[in-house]
Amino acid sequence: MTKKTYINGVGCISTQKTFDTVFLEEANVNHDENVLAIVPPAYKEYISPAASRRMAKGVKNGIVASALAMKDANVESVDAIITGTGLGCIEDSEKFLKSILDNKEEFLTPTSFIQSTHNTVGAQIALLQQCKGYNFTYVNGAVSFESALIDAKMQIEEDEANSILVGGVDENGDYTTALFKLNGRIKADNTAPYDVLTSKTSGAVYGEGASFFVLENEKKDNTYAELLDVSIINTLEVNEVESEIKSFLKSNHLEISDIDALVLGFDGNANFENYYRNLAENAFAQTPVLYYKHLSGEYDTASAFAFWMASKILKTQEVPEIVKVNSVTKPAYKTILLYNQLSGKNHSFTLLSK
Known about the structure:
Ketoacyl_synth_N; Thiolase-like; Peroxisomal Thiolase, Chain A, domain 1
């Protein structure tokens, strides 16, 4: 009998106030910015100021989000730490490259280089917790977080670990952001208001964040949800998504009518919104459809924010008005499907149940 995977703790640092709150009651939609910055927690409560000064933004957010998740799950230690990140500690990468240029390749300090690798976040969390177990970082574009989830789920099913910390972390760097604006990944400056659902322009509203989860093989009083399944597919045409979802649900003995909420990754990029719009208007027209990137912004591991949101909905049985795409409601929320893609690639399906 394979073990089931339960979400027993969550921690989320995002471009909204998602800590010290119940559930998005303080969230607001920013229509003026095309790049959203995180709402910073009180770092000094988690990290000593001396250590904090030397840490990249993403590392600090990862440490706090993981601490929140562990506290939420009432666990002191975990067997493994698995992180997903798209760009890693991009700010330190930028600093290092800039200092190479500024100093004409001489007198370089290696600090920024050491701290710029993608696995810095997982390493720092392990150091703070003295966790000597399996520690792995997935860098896989927009399915980095889902890759980490699949690994964690397999380890729990195969009884290789009882308790695993899984997270998705990305940070904004000024130079990289400028490049993303140049190549059209981010919406052009000075074209506000930036609206995610009704956008007619290409490019996305960008963001950053860190969300961590304690996944365990045991259901507890404080369990949020069960992670039923995760599937990732590199490329799909718009007209293939619905049948892909149907077969994904079928493998879990479910149909579209069994889904109580569908969480979609609308990010304001008009070129690729049909992946979502087709589902929302046709197959899932009778289902509550939700979105989140107007709150979190778009980034490689933004789907971890959706995972946090879906976990909260299953636990509180409430759907905040601010995340609704349509006006369909359900008396109870038992099964939630998450679907995300970025620029037509890296499609992921994640299934959670109460």
